[in-house]
């Protein structure tokens, strides 16, 4: 796939799909990046703060035209979240190819966009995966948002499926880090976690798009999270996302939450830990994700800054 198919690298496409009906109100489509304080870093997302007039095909069309890995669409909250003083919303996420149950970077981007309009504080988003609270704070002119995931879970994966994933990636089994057993991790969406033995292995990503996409559809995966450990609490990650129609996600909050749960359950990090994940460096869109684990609290917190893309 060419670089132009990567999210955030191509020139900005039209904001609304050409096939939207003429009677459909044109929504304002914002563009924000998450997990970076500058527009050039992190992962771009489209944000529609009022998607009331849009149907599923409209939302998918907007996401496809933007070409980002995901876009977020807000509507009124469901019953039970309405008592949040105007700071609760229903949210849906669409990649250029399909709806996804949860997207961390689009949640952070949306929270930053809302904070610029209604002020920092607590937000609650009703997602397909469950309720996701977000705390937004401003420090020194920088807005930072922290989401708390739904309760995570970790699953075994069959050896034959690991072999297929490695074949699609073009990775010999010897390039895996034995300290990171392959697992499927969930914290709102499902991700296959694979540990790379070296930073060079992680940097060299040229995979069979169709083959990996087919495996991911069969296993109901959102991304494959490839991880290399730099130190006890610092990791470098990459996330192929062929099921979303893009080669790679530049910064992936949902996968970061899933990875935090994975690392804790397998004893790779303490129950109380703050992890730093670097992502997007190999795409030229560096971003930083902070993953916070608390003893006795299964849910995982993922924090990052955000910035509007002009």
Automatic annotation (TrEMBL):
GO cellular component: cytoplasm
Keyword tags: Isomerase
Domain of life: Bacteria
Repeat is among the record's keywords: no
SUPFAM superfamilies registered for this protein in UniProt: Diaminopimelate epimerase-like
Residues at the catalytic site: 70
A single GO molecular function term of this UniProt record: isomerase activity
Annotated family: Belongs to the PhzF family.
Annotated protein name in UniProt: Oxidoreductase
């Amino acid at each position: 796939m060419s670089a132009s198919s990567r999210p955030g690298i191509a020139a900005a496409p039209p904001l609304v799909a050409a096939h939207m009906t003429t009677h459909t109100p044109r929504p304002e489509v914002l563009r924000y990046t998450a997990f970076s304080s500058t527009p050039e870093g992190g992962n771009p997302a489209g944000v529609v703060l009022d998607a009331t007039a849009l149907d599923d095909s409209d939302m998918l069309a907007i996401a496809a035209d933007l070409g980002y890995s995901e876009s977020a669409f807000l509507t009124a909250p469901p019953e039970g979240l309405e008592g949040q003083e105007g700071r609760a919303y229903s949210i849906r996420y669409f990649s250029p190819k399909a709806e996804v149950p949860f997207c961390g970077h689009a949640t952070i981007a949306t929270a930053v966009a809302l904070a610029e309009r209604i002020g920092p504080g607590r937000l609650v988003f009703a997602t397909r995966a469950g309720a996701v609270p977000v705390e937004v704070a401003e420090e020194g002119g920088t807005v930072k948002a922290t989401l708390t995931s739904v309760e995570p879970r970790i699953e075994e994966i069959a050896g034959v499926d690991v072999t297929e994933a490695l074949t699609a990636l073009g990775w010999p089994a010897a390039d895996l880090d034995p300290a990171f057993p392959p697992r499927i991790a969930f914290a709102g969406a499902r991700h296959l976690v694979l540990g790379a033995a070296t930073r060079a292995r992680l940097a060299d990503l040229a995979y069979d798009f169709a083959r990996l996409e087919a495996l991911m559809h069969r296993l109901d995966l959102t991304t494959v999270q490839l991880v290399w450990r730099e130190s006890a609490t610092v990791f470098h990650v990459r996330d192929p996302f062929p099921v979303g129609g893009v080669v790679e996600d530049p910064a992936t909050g949902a996968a970061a939450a899933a990875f935090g749960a994975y690392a804790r359950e397998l004893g790779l990090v303490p129950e109380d830990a703050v992890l730093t994940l670097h992502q997007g460096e190999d795409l030229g869109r560096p971003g930083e994700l902070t993953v916070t684990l608390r003893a006795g609290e299964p849910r995982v917190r993922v924090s990052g800054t955000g910035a509007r893309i002009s």
